[in-house]
Design goal:
Chain A is an alpha/beta fold. Chain A has 10 helices and 12 strands. A 6-stranded mixed sheet of chain A has the order 6-9-10-3-11-12, sandwiched between helices. Chain A has a 4-stranded antiparallel sheet with strand order 2-1-4-5. Chain A has a two-stranded antiparallel sheet with strand order 7-8. The mean pLDDT of chain A is about 90. Classes of the chains: A alpha/beta, B alpha/beta. At the A-B interface, helix 2, strand 7, helix 3 and strand 8 of A face helix 10 and helix 11 of B.
């Protein structure tokens, strides 16, 4: 379970999150929507432990541990995954070697020996089917020369490899065509389980047709101002955010 | 523990002290400090050299006395007092060794600490190791196997005695005595080194490998290496170096000469990890090396170097592309950290028609270090249709380190094509965070990114060496040996 309580965070003196509360139970899929600049990506970065963001207050409990006390590596090893909006390229480092380092990092945390070469390759083969990631992409340098869709598929492939307890998808749908959107969503859906929860950050209701959320939250000016089920997303699609903003100020 | 910032991690990991800073206690036979005709005669006598060799040395000494130490490199160091250096030290180990088992146990332990146990080398299929400890070769393996093919691989002192005709024919033909201050010094006082000859049409079946090691406090090491690949032959030669921790600066002025006769190919790889001095730059090796090869018709010389050590490095492995259709290559990764300084690069001299050269240089600067690439591409009037491609990349790990590029291009033939690309970048925060988010720790993240950056060069190394080179990059920058 992830429990965010009154979380406040700033970047370069600017206050972005202003007391955010959110509880995500195991097995649940939550979607966060909101206008530009409302703090959606900041929330993802803060949860993942990006150091440019300063925590001004509040707490984040992750399966009984205060993750704000952990560094980014420890959070990842504890089972928190972030699918990046803009996955970076790492020239000269093959996707496979990169994932092997990541998988072994997690195994070390769990007190396991490094994975055997054969087991690892089998795992890669199995997981890459999930997002139709072909061998060519697996052996290339991390994200180097990948199309936008390939990068996002690679993110989901990595998620499948690391089997996190909780995954944040930060605008995974941005820059995807319909086919890639379907592939990525199917990959995510295949990973839904009672032990795993998701936080899906998106601007568009379209993604939520594929990945159907249990809850939808609206983030405005660093706070969750409205929560509902998937119908809320449809309403936002139709009416935009202004009516919610007006509601708040009213 | 919270992750407190990349800079701190880099500072911590790059601040790691030198892992190979141990000293082995082997008695040595050492000449008194200073350089004079008398000392040169002593060295020559100790080595039981023929008269022509002595005369060659004395001539070099006379030339050296007329020369000045160069001031043009982008380096700041206190010039050595050449009269305070001892020019000869040989381990007191008299008897000739036939097998590695006979080697002094202390020496074996030294090799083990370096992680280059010769058993392992043997097991790794076909690496003949000519282990040089303070100037005198103590163990040579695989010699018989090589002899069957007519390959000569021995110490320079042995070659002077056993193969004088080959040595006299080629010694000093690629790097003449008066080429520069350090080459003249080396010619006068060189104590040992390796000699290699590959006969016509022979493809050397194994990587030839020499491990150099400076062991005796206060002795300069002056290696002389000569490698001759006769027509149509091939050889891959590996040179790896580590040195024990010392408080005073140690001078190293080696000369390496490569001769690739018609249609021959020489691949020369170096991993250099000499003591770089402490974090303030105290101590450490002064590495002033002259390496050059000459390419005859359709031949090829490829230099690959991974330079992580030394306090000061001055080194430009070069190719003279004399023969038509000959090829020269230079692949380099140079890492500087703390107060290290490196001024390194290459010279590609195109004389023959259709000659091609490639330069790939990757500099990595950490701490307060300065890393300079200096390269010359010279297309002479005779070199019709010559081509060069140069790529010089610099990666900065800290705000306090420096990267400098000094490319010189001289084109005297209008049919030449010369390309130069250069980039300078700072290690990416986003790349590091991406790794961290995948559960990779900061040290390993930096190691991955740096090794990825240097991959084009590391790929040029033979497999076992590439692994060692990656380890060295990790030790130099991360502290974790992967």
């Amino acid at each position: 379970m992830l429990k965010i309580n009154e979380l406040k965070a700033s970047v370069e003196e600017a206050s972005i999150l202003k007391g955010l509360n959110l509880t995500i139970n195991s097995g649940e899929v939550h979607a966060i929507m909101g206008p530009n600049g409302s703090g959606k990506s900041t929330l993802a970065s803060v949860l993942a432990g990006r150091e440019e963001y300063k925590i001004e207050g509040g707490s984040v409990d992750f399966y009984g541990e205060d993750i704000l006390e952990m560094d980014a590596t420890e959070r990842a090893r504890a089972g928190l995954f972030l699918a990046f909006q803009y996955p970076v390229e790492i020239p000269g480092v093959s996707n496979i070697n990169f994932m092997r380092a990541a998988v072994n990092g997690k195994r070390e945390h769990e007190g396991l020996d490094p994975i055997k070469g054969k087991d690892f390759l089998e795992m890669v083969k199995e997981k890459s089917k999930l997002v139709e990631l072909d061998g060519r992409l697996r052996n290339r340098s991390v994200n180097e020369g990948f199309s936008g869709g390939e990068k996002k598929r690679n993110e989901i492939f990595q998620m499948a490899m690391l089997e996190p307890k909780f995954a944040i998808l930060d605008e995974t749908d941005s820059g995807l065509d319909i086919d890639a959107l379907r592939i990525v969503s199917e990959g995510v859906n295949a990973m839904r389980s009672p032990e795993r929860s998701f936080l899906v950050i998106t601007h568009y209701q379209r993604l939520l047709d594929y990945i159907v959320p249990d809850f939808v939250h609206v983030l405005v000016d660093g706070r969750i101002v409205r929560s509902g089920d998937k119908e809320l997303a449809l309403e936002l699609e139709e009416r935009g955010y202004d009516w919610i903003k007006e509601d708040i100020t009213a | 523990m919270a992750y407190e910032g990349k800079d701190k991690v880099i500072e911590e990991v790059t601040g790691k002290s030198y892992e190979f800073g141990f000293t082995s206690e082997i008695e040595s036979d050492k000449a008194p400090a200073g350089l004079s005709e008398k000392i040169i005669r002593l060295i020559s006598a100790k080595k039981d050299e023929p008269e022509w060799m002595l005369q060659w040395r004395l001539n070099a000494f006379a030339v050296w006395q007329t020369m000045d130490e160069p001031n043009w490199p982008h380096l700041q160091y206190e010039k050595p007092d050449y009269q305070a250096i001892s020019y000869y030290a040989a381990p007191k180990q008299k008897k000739q060794l036939n097998s590695l088992e006979e080697v002094d146990p202390e020496l074996r332990r030294t090799m083990d600490k370096l992680g280059i146990s010769i058993e392992e080398q043997k097991r790794l299929s076909g690496v003949a190791v000519d282990f040089v400890l303070d100037s005198v070769s103590v163990a040579t393996s695989f010699k018989d196997k090589l002899a069957e093919l007519g390959i000569i691989f021995c110490s320079m002192s042995e070659a002077v005695k056993e193969h004088p005709e080959l040595v006299r024919k080629h010694l000093g033909t690629v790097v003449p005595t008066r080429d520069n201050f350090f080459s003249a010094l080396n010619a006068a006082v060189f104590t040992d080194g390796s000699f290699c000859y590959i006969p016509k049409g022979v493809r050397c079946p194994m990587e030839l490998s020499t491990y150099f090691r400076i062991n005796e406090s206060g002795t300069g090491q002056f290696e002389r290496t000569l490698l001759v690949a006769d027509e149509g032959s091939y050889v891959s030669y590996l040179e790896g170096c580590t040195a024990p921790q010392r408080d005073e600066n140690q001078l190293h002025a080696a000369v390496v000469e490569l001769v690739a006769l018609d249609e021959a190919e020489i691949k020369y790889s170096t991993v250099q990890n000499w003591y770089p001095g402490d974090e303030n730059g105290k101590g450490g090796i002064y590495n002033f090396v002259t390496k050059r090869g000459i390419c005859h018709h359709r031949s090829k010389i490829s230099w690959t170097q991974v330079e992580t050590g030394s306090a000061v490095t001055w080194k430009y492995p070069s190719c003279i592309l004399k023969g038509d259709n000959s090829v020269g290559e230079f692949y380099s990764v140079a890492v500087t950290n703390n107060a290290q300084q490196a001024d390194t690069g290459t010279k590609m001299i195109h004389l023959g028609k259709n000659t091609h050269s490639t330069i790939i240089s990757k500099g990595i600067s950490a701490g307060n270090s300065h890393n300079s690439y200096r390269g010359l591409v010279q297309i002479m009037p005779s070199a019709a249709n010559a081509r060069n491609f140069s790529q010089c990349d610099s990666l900065l790990m800290t705000d306090t380190s420096g990267a400098h590029t000094f490319p010189y291009v001289e084109v005297k033939n209008p049919t030449a094509q010369v390309e130069h690309e250069a980039t300078t970048s700072k290690i990416g925060e986003d790349q590091i965070f991406y790794c961290l988010q995948r559960g990779i720790d900061a040290e390993q993240a930096i190691s991955l990114i740096v090794n990825g950056y240097a991959k084009e060069v590391l790929n040029q190394l033979p497999m076992e060496f590439a692994v060692e080179a990656q380890k060295l990059l990790s030790i130099s920058l991360e502290g974790s040996v992967g």
